[in-house]
């Protein structure tokens, strides 16, 4: 279980991804991140599902997929990308 020591952060790429979304979609994603790190019932890493051929885990938030890593040593959930489901799993450099 979480001891409320977990925090989350966005990579610069994830910040750019969020900047392109509507305020409602941004709020939904940020609220989910807050929920994950403050859950008294589950450890944050329990929310992540493995991504094939990737060092990241995925978290689904409605039609969005977050590519994340969980840093156990300092209890940080780091969001690498936030994309709509259709484009979340493609390799791109944009």
Features:
30% strand, 3 helices, 94 residues, YaeB-like fold, globular
End-to-end distance, in Å?
36 Å
Strand order of the main beta sheet, please?
A: 1-5-4-3-2
Overall mean pLDDT stands at 89
Order of helices and strands: EHHEEEEH
- The CATH superfamily is RelE-like
Radius of gyration: 13 Å
Question: Which structural class should the secondary elements be placed in?
Answer: alpha+beta
The residue ranges in which pLDDT falls below 50 over 5 or more consecutive positions are none
Count of all domains = 1
Biggest β-sheet, characterized? 5 strands, mixed
Which architecture per CATH?
2-Layer Sandwich
CATH topology: YaeB-like fold
CATH C-level category: Alpha Beta
What does this 3D model show about the protein?
It is a single chain. The protein is an alpha+beta fold and 94 residues long. The chain has one domain: 2-Layer Sandwich (YaeB-like fold), CATH 3.30.2310.20. The protein contains three helices and five strands. Strands 1-5-4-3-2 form a five-stranded mixed beta sheet.
